[in-house]
Amino acid sequence: MxxxxxxxxxxxxxxKHSDExxxxxxxxxxxxxxxxxxxxxxxxxxLQRVNELKAENEQLEVKVKLLSKExxxxxxxxxxxxxxxxxxxxxxxxxxxxxNSQTSTFNDNNASxxxxxxxxxHTREDMAIKAEA
Length: 133
Fold this sequence. Notes:
The chain is mainly alpha-helical. The protein has helices at residues 13-16, 19-84, 91-103, 110-132. The chain is rod-shaped and about 105 Å long.
């Protein structure tokens, strides 16, 4: 500020060399360094997290492929088993339809597929018993 209390647009040579000005500059320099260190640290942490998530994603993709193969094998086994049983009242078609419809939602609801499979097997067995009687 100028001696009359108004703001001065230029700092005088004396103000730039005053102790107060030097202290303010030093505090500002420290704050800037601290801010830059914190920013670099946050960037490094973010990159580390990205790498961790990429690795986890790769593992999950491998698991999905493995589970898809397992589902395919189990589906084939189930359909082969269903094909060897005597066909009564379209139970084979029901089993096949249930298996095919559940394939698309396998990852969403495994328990439902198992229950439907168990129901289909019991239904076929009940129908076979009734047909024999």
